[in-house]
């Protein structure tokens, strides 16, 4: 079986709808066809200041949501990034292969550091994409299910894997991004020109999956649309409505063309009311399942312990190979 790997941050506690539709849904699908490794990336989370107690709690919340979304620990390897020290170890090697200019071109760093301000931006945030390179290469992953915003980081991973392989001899599988065209970028409900984001969206712009369904329904009803009243998919001139149609179609399996027909002659109000119901039907059982996992932290921690053990076996082998190729003297 080919390998797949991906990670999600435990920041903010709740996942948002973009995380689910763009990434987690694909995790669930790929566990059927791939030897899949999924992790909660706590080391990535601390590139931006976190409260220690909250971070610890939110890491379990993230794991519970992954299980609630359909990840099955018998079908995939589910673990926490910091439980596998090889990630930080390989990241150092890859840091020493990455050009400063190359890292400076990462647009996500530019966006996040601008938001933080120069004084509060850490070196960790700067090298975050290189840690991500190590995350992927350690597992010899060929597919990396992510949202569109991660495309540039996967390109960097490919470049660095090829650079390492040609300089030191073959050590790494060169991975591909697995991005679903329709849902790779879910937009902020208040500003449909930017992606829905844990760190950048305003509360009204983001659907947090663990929020009270009433709150989410209200946010959908006040989503920014346009001055026309025709329900039509057109990302260029109607980004707000198109975003709602994408969400609706993906959650129900009804095609966008059918939805356009269904709402012909009706306004945005009808579309939003129905979508709010669709969301509720999906979110209510998801929240209940998440809570069940959280009520049993021992089971959850056992799943993570097993996951880390499986992950470490693979990661340690790749790290040893990479260390050897680079010329590090093995310890006796
Ligand atoms: P942050 O803004 O702090 O980076 P985030 O919202 O991007 O947070 P992550 O944990 O960084 O959340 O991302 C987890 C996964 O979700 C990644 O694969 C990412 O590409 C995907 N993703 C994030 N936002 C969206 C979105 N709006 N649409 C589709 N996929 C998304
Ligand atoms: Mg992100």
UniProtKB/TrEMBL annotation:
Keywords: Aminoacyl-tRNA synthetase, ATP-binding, Cytoplasm, Ligase, Nucleotide-binding, Protein biosynthesis
Upper taxonomic lineage: Bacteria, Bacillati, Actinomycetota, Actinomycetes, Kitasatosporales
Enzyme category, top tier: ligase
Name by which UniProt lists this protein: Tryptophan--tRNA ligase
Signal peptide, first to last residue: none
Catalytic activity annotation: tRNA(Trp) + L-tryptophan + ATP = L-tryptophyl-tRNA(Trp) + AMP + diphosphate + H(+)
Superkingdom to which the source organism belongs: Bacteria
Binding site for ATP: 9-11, 18-19, 147-149, 186, 195-199
């Amino acid at each position: 079986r080919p390998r797949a790997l991906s990670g999600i941050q435990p920041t903010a506690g709740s996942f948002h709808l973009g995380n689910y539709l763009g990434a987690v849904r694909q995790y669930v699908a790929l566990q059927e066809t791939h030897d899949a490794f999924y992790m909660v990336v706590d080391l990535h989370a601390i590139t931006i200041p976190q409260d220690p107690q909250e971070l610890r709690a939110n890491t379990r919340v993230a794991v519970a949501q992954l299980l609630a979304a359909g990840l099955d620990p018998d079908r995939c390897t589910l673990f926490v990034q910091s439980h596998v020290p090889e990630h930080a170890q390989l990241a150092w090697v890859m840091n020493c292969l990455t050009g400063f200019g190359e890292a400076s071109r990462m647009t996500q760093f530019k966006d996040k550091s601008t938001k933080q301000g120069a004084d509060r931006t850490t070196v960790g945030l700067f090298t975050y994409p290189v840690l991500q390179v190590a995350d992927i290469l350690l597992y010899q992953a060929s597919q990396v299910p992510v949202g569109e915003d991660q495309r540039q980081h996967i390109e960097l991973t490919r470049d660095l894997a090829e650079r390492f392989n040609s300089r030191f001899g073959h050590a790494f599988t060169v991975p591909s991004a697995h991005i679903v065209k329709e849902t790779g970028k879910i937009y902020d409900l208040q500003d449909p020109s930017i992606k829905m984001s844990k760190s950048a969206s305003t509360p009204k712009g983001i659907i947090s999956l663990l929020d009270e369904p009433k709150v989410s329904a209200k946010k959908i009803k006040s989503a920014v649309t346009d001055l026309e009243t025709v329900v039509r998919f057109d990302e260029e001139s109607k980004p707000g409505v198109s975003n709602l149609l994408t969400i609706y179609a993906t959650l129900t399996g009804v095609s966008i063309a059918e939805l356009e027909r269904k709402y012909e002659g009706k306004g945005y109000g009808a579309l939003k009311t129905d979508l709010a119901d669709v969301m509720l039907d999906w979110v209510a059982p998801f929240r209940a399942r998440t809570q069940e996992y959280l009520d049993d932290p021992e089971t959850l921690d056992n799943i993570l312990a097993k996951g880390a053990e499986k992950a470490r076996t693979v990661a340690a082998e790749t790290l040893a190979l990479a260390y050897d190729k680079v010329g590090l003297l093995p310890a006796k």
